[in-house]
UniProtKB/TrEMBL annotation:
Coiled coil: none
Annotated signal sequence range: 1-20
PROSITE patterns documented for this protein: PROKAR_LIPOPROTEIN (PS51257)
Listed Low complexity bias regions: 26-45
Protein name according to UniProt: Sugar ABC transporter substrate-binding protein
Keyword Transport: yes
Entry keyword Transport: yes
Assigned keywords, A-Z: Signal, Transport
Residue ranges, annotated region (Disordered): 23-51
Record InterPro entries: Bact_solute-bd_prot1
Gene3D superfamilies: Periplasmic binding protein-like II
Family that this chain belongs to: Belongs to the bacterial solute-binding protein 1 family.
Length: 460
C-alpha cells in the first residue's frame, strides 16, 4: 500500500512538472511577457507533519516510595519525548518488579503482545525474548545516536552480536550497616568472613539482630548465598552450570549454602524471615532492630531520604562482603542487568519507532545518568569517570559505595543472569527450604542440579 501511494504521488508531481514546462515553452515562443512568480510560502510547500494522535505504553517498575526519584526522572523523559514527537501520548504502566518479570511480561511475551517499551532483565530474559523474535534490535539506533560504545557493558542485552535492550543503571551487592552503633560499640568493618561472623555473634549477644533479612521473595536471601559460594567456590563457577562444566553439588558450593544455613541456626536473622516483605528488612535497620543488611547498592536511596529513613539519614554505611582470607581482593556481584526493552512490533510503525528512538536519546545521557546517581544513588550504566561520580554526590553513604567499587578485585553477574529460569525456580524454592530447616544444603543442591541437568538437556 505504501509503495502504491508513493508511485501515485510521484506521478502527480511528474505530470505537474511536465505541464508547467510546456506552458513556459509556449509563452516564450509567442514572445508573451512573463510575470515574475509570486513569492511562495516555503513552509506551505514542505510535507505536512503527521500530528495525528498516537500512543505508546511504557511498562516500568518504579513503584513505591523507595523508587520515587527514578519515577521523577522517567516522567521528565516522557515529557521531553512527547514534546519532540508530534501527536505522541505516552501511557505509563506501573507494575511491581517481581510481578512484571515473573508473571505479566512472561504472559505478554507468550501471547506475542508486549508493550512498546518495558522494564526487562537482560540475561537471560531479554536474550530469550530476542531469540523468539519479540524484542526490537536497537543496535542501529544506538550506533546512529553515537551511543554504542558509551556503556560499561551491553553484554546482558546482547544476543548473536545484536543489542536488544539498554541497561538503566549498574549495581553492586554488599552490606549496609549502622555506623552509629559501630562507633558506640567500638566495632570495625570486618576484613574477613570469619571476622564478619564474630561481629554477628557480638551483635546478637548485645540483643540486636545481626543481619536484617526478608525471605518471602527468595532472591533476597540468595544475594547472601550467591556471594558466599562465589567466595568459597570462585566467581567463575556459576558460568559453568549452564554448560555442565561445573555442578551445583560442588563441595565448595555445598559449604557456602551450609554456611548460610548455619547463620540462620545461630539466630543471626530475625525469626519469621520467610514471611517478611522486601521493605521489612530495611525497616529493621531504620528502627535500629538490626545492624547489618545485605542488599544491592540501589537501596541507598532509602537511607538518604528523611521521609523514609528519618533520623537514620547520615548514620548508615556500606562495605563489600569481606573475603575468606585477609588481604584477598573482594569478589563482588556487579552488573547492569536491569533496563528497558522494546517490542519488535515497533519496527512496523515509523512513528512508534521514532518515539522509541527519541526515548532512548533522552533517557540515556550523561546528565540523566548523573542525575540518577545524585538523586537516587543509582550507579551509572554508561561510562562515567569514578572521580566525576565522587564529585557529583558528596553523600557519605555514596562515598562508601564508591570506595567499595574501587576495592573490587573480581566481579560477576548475579546467578539469575547465568542460569535458566527453571533452575532459578528450583534454587529459589531450595533456599527457602534451607532457611526453614526442611532440607540441608547438600540435599537442596542435589535438587537444583537435577533441575540444571534437565534444563541443559532441553537446551539447543
Amino acid at each position: 500500500m505504501k509503495k502504491n501511494v508513493v508511485l501515485i504521488v510521484s506521478f502527480v508531481f511528474l505530470a505537474s512538472g511536465l505541464l508547467a514546462g510546456c506552458g513556459k515553452s509556449e509563452n516564450n515562443t509567442n514572445n508573451t511577457p512573463t510575470k515574475e512568480p509570486a513569492p511562495t510560502n516555503t513552509a506551505a510547500n514542505e510535507p505536512k507533519v503527521n500530528d495525528e494522535p498516537f500512543e505508546i505504553t511504557i511498562r516500568h517498575t518504579q513503584v513505591g516510595e523507595a523508587k520515587k526519584f527514578r519515577l521523577a526522572i522517567l516522567n521528565d523523559v516522557v515529557k521531553q519525548t512527547e514534546a519532540a514527537i508530534p501527536g505522541l501520548k505516552i501511557k505509563l504502566d506501573a507494575v511491581d518488579s517481581e510481578v512484571n518479570r515473573k508473571e505479566k511480561l512472561r504472559g505478554e511475551m507468550a501471547a506475542g503482545k508486549p508493550p512498546e517499551v518495558f522494564d526487562v532483565f537482560g540475561s537471560p530474559d531479554a536474550q530469550l525474548y530476542a531469540k523468539e523474535g519479540l524484542m526490537l534490535d536497537v543496535t542501529s539506533i544506538l550506533t546512529e545516536l553515537g551511543m554504542k560504545d558509551k556503556f560499561n557493558t551491553l553484554a546482558p542485552f546482547t544476543y548473536q552480536d545484536k543489542v536488544y535492550g539498554v541497561p538503566i543503571g549498574g549495581s553492586i551487592e554488599g552490606y549496609f550497616y549502622n555506623k552509629e552503633y559501630f562507633e558506640q560499640k567500638g566495632l570495625k568493618v570486618p576484613a574477613t568472613l570469619d571476622e564478619l561472623e564474630k561481629l554477628a555473634e557480638a551483635i546478637k549477644a548485645d540483643g540486636k539482630v545481626p543481619f536484617a533479612q526478608s525471605s518471602k521473595d527468595s532472591w533476597i536471601p540468595l544475594m547472601t548465598t550467591n556471594n558466599l559460594w562465589s567466595y568459597y567456590a570462585g566467581a567463575d563457577i556459576t558460568y559453568g552450570f549452564k554448560t555442565a562444566a561445573t555442578k551445583w553439588t560442588d563441595p565448595n558450593v555445598v559449604k557456602a549454602v551450609a554456611k548460610h544455613q548455619d547463620w540462620v541456626k545461630k539466630g543471626f536473622y530475625k525469626k519469621g524471615e520467610l514471611g517478611f516483605e522486601y521493605a521489612d528488612m530495611r525497616n529493621q535497620i531504620i528502627t535500629g532492630e538490626a545492624i547489618l543488611m545485605m542488599d544491592g547498592s540501589w537501596a541507598n536511596s532509602v537511607f538518604r531520604d528523611p521521609a523514609q529513613a528519618g533520623d537514620m539519614v547520615g548514620k548508615i554505611g556500606f562495605f563489600n562482603m569481606p573475603p575468606v582470607n585477609a588481604g584477598d581482593k573482594a569478589i563482588v556481584m556487579q552488573d547492569a542487568n536491569n533496563g528497558y526493552g522494546f517490542s519488535s512490533a515497533v519496527a512496523d510503525d515509523p512513528r512508534k519507532l521514532a518515539a522509541v528512538k527519541e526515548f532512548i536519546k533522552n533517557l540515556w545521557t550523561d546528565e540523566m545518568q548523573l542525575r540518577g546517581l545524585k538523586e537516587d544513588g543509582l550507579l551509572p550504566a554508561m561510562k562515567i569517570d569514578l572521580e566525576q561520580m565522587k564529585s557529583t554526590s558528596d553523600d557519605p553513604l555514596m562515598q562508601d559505595i564508591f570506595k567499595a567499587v574501587s576495592e573490587i578485585g573480581t566481579s560477576y553477574p548475579a546467578f539469575d543472569a547465568l542460569v535458566q529460569a527453571e533452575v532459578n525456580t528450583a534454587l529459589s524454592m531450595g533456599i527457602q527450604q534451607v532457611i526453614s530447616g526442611e532440607l540441608d544444603a547438600a540435599k537442596m543442591l542435589e535438587n537444583v542440579q537435577a533441575a540444571q541437568d534437565a534444563a541443559n538437556a532441553t537446551a539447543e
